[in-house]
Write a structure and sequence with these properties.
The chain is mainly α and about 350 residues long. It has 13 helices and no strands. Helix 11 packs across helix 12.
């Protein structure tokens, strides 16, 4: 018994150390993201600008505008997007017991892409409120897709298999609809649609960051509060969860809705970033194990690190050309993911 208690304490200390390391890496990477760019800033200058509202420090207005209006909202949106997509992916994988499930593979991101494409085809891009109309259309289609998945599953009972199969079918449907819109779009509209579908953090504003951040702050506690239920699903499926007193239908519906709302709020502003929700939970599972009390927050940290690193690489590697983060995240995430898979000593966990 003593050995078991000591082992549990060691594992808890290891996970706490992993959480502290993740927070430190996020802070360092965010500071580096604020400093690096066409107009280089030293870490001391960046910190003085960040603290200037509190300490009344005099800093050049040009540097303050670059950091506070361009780089800081972009960097924070990278953290919000990565954390939200990874958290949603981990929750959906847990609720369906399927390691291939992510917000992209159940149709949420393709639906958002179709909504944005439809708005661009309707001429929203040329209007004063165009960006907001595109975001609204993307969000509406993403939520509509989730409603269709849940309605489809409800016809036969809200089972994991029905959720996955319904989502896969809708992924193909919205992919075909988006392709149809691209086929009839003008050259200018086609360029805008393709640019949106790449997934980018260019031009992120504080207002957009606030909306996505608030939705994530509302949805994340809901997902974290269901960690024990997700552990029960992972341990033995619906029967085990029901035997332990969890309402299978209610838990699955609440977790799915929270994950979908978080994803929809993010991809509506950033475009499709499809890899994070799939791979970040797997990396977190290799590092922190399968206990969702740890898996969910570590997945969020891994996702935030992945998107922030990808955005920095996209801004710096081929400057002044900026590569969309949706493309770079796959180039960074796939080698890291494969390396962890091949070097892991916990292969049985996947």
């Amino acid at each position: 018994m003593s050995a078991l208690v000591q082992g549990l304490r060691r594992e808890r200390r290891r996970r706490l150390a992993l959480a502290a390391l993740s927070v430190a890496l996020l802070a360092l990477l965010l500071l580096a993201s604020l400093c690096l760019g066409a107009r280089g800033l030293g870490p001391g200058t960046a910190l003085r600008i960040l603290l200037s509202p509190l300490l009344d420090v005099d800093v050049p207005e040009a540097q303050r505008a670059v950091l506070l209006e361009l780089r800081l909202p972009r960097g924070l949106m990278a953290l919000v997007a990565g954390a939200g997509l990874a958290l949603s992916g981990a929750a959906m994988q847990g609720i369906t017991r399927n390691p291939l499930v992510s917000p992209y593979t159940v149709g949420i991101s393709p639906a958002a892409a179709f909504g944005a494409s439809l708005a661009i085809l309707a001429g929203a891009g040329g209007q004063a409120l165009g960006p907001y109309l595109i975001v609204a259309a993307a969000f509406a289609c993403a939520v509509g897709c989730a409603a269709m998945v849940l309605a489809f599953a409800a016809l036969r009972g809200v089972s994991a298999t029905m959720l996955v199969l319904g989502g896969v079918g809708l992924t193909y449907l919205f992919g075909a609809l988006t392709a149809s819109v691209q086929f009839v779009a003008s050259e200018q509209q086609l360029a805008a649609i393709v640019q949106w579908s790449f997934g980018s953090l260019n031009g992120i504003t504080w207002r957009e960051l606030a909306v996505a951040g608030v939705v994530l702050l509302l949805c994340a506690p809901v997902l974290l509060a269901h960690a024990w239920a997700l552990n029960a699903f992972a341990a033995g499926g619906d029967e085990t969860a029901a035997a332990l007193g969890f309402s299978v239908r209610r838990v699955r519906t609440v977790v799915t809705v929270a994950a979908v709302m978080s994803t929809a709020a993010i991809v509506s502003f950033t475009g499709v970033i499809g890899f994070v929700g799939l791979v970040a939970p797997h990396i977190a599972r290799l590092l922190a194990g399968g206990d969702h009390r740890w898996l969910l927050p570590v997945s969020a940290a891994i996702g935030a690190l992945l998107v922030l690193a990808a955005d920095m690489a996209g801004r710096l590697l081929f400057a002044p050309v900026i590569i969309p983060v949706g493309i770079v995240v796959a180039y960074i995430g796939v080698p890291l993911f494969l390396h962890l898979l091949l070097s892991s000593r916990h292969k049985g966990e996947l």
